[in-house]
Design goal:
Blueprint: H1 4-45, E1 49-53, E2 60-64, E3 69-73, E4 77-78, H2 81-90, E5 98-99, E6 115-119, E7 122-129, E8 135-140, E9 143-148, H3 150-156, H4 158-162, E10 174-179, E11 185-187, H5 190-193, E12 203-206, E13 217-225, E14 228-236, E15 241-245, E16 250-254
Antiparallel strand pairs: 1-2, 1-6, 2-3, 3-4, 5-9, 6-7, 7-8, 8-9, 10-11, 10-13, 12-16, 13-14, 14-15, 15-16
Amino acid sequence: MQTQAHKTQRLVVLAGALLAALLILIVGILYHDTRQNSVSVVSSESPQRIVIQRPGFADIVLTNTKDSWLIEQPCTLQTNLQRLQPMLGALAPVVHGYAAKEVDLAAAGLLDPQAVVYLNDTQIDIGGTDLTGERRYILRNQRVEFVPEWILSLINGGITALASLDVFTRAPDQLIIHTNGDTRTSTLSDKQLEPWYNLSAQQIVTWPLTGNESVLSSHTLELVTDSKKQWLTLDHFARFSAIRYENAPCAFILPTDDLPASAPR
């Protein structure tokens, strides 16, 4: 006949076994959910194509090449990865969110979004800020999530915020200046060419310029890099200068005083 101590011991062992089985089940469920979330995050954080749409502006299209990201529209430019990576990180899927039907989309600014970003085929609408002013509402796959407030400022920076501002992607081997309206042509010496290497723009804008800016003088630059020849136009305006590659729909804008001393005025 079993004693009370034996019965108690059997109950404790049985309860322990049931608890262990329950813990294994919970861990299995959590592992399965984690695996699903991990797959989702990896695929969403590694898009091959990004499209940024803003009211009143040309779309910005970026593609993921083997080596880096390249801006394809509205013009072909190298990407500033130090700006792009934080944007992708901020737009990565989050664990917590709300079903769209549970949120006042009008109050969140999501019925008339301030910008729309496509990561591959996933549409992300960017709305207004919450009461703290530190987070911004986004709508993705019929779920409302939060992103840092600064995401819209970065996107509204346009191609200037996302592109490399270097006028030359590689150091030129030779630069020949043709002064328009004159027969003079000058080939820069190595010492004169050096200040052009790291020439950086203040901003990049679509061309032609909108507004009442008039060109004061215009010059043609003949650029030779790795035996390949390119033609650029240097235009001087009253408040700035613009450098544009031949037939390019965008121009590099920089203060005239930032130009090397060898640049024609």
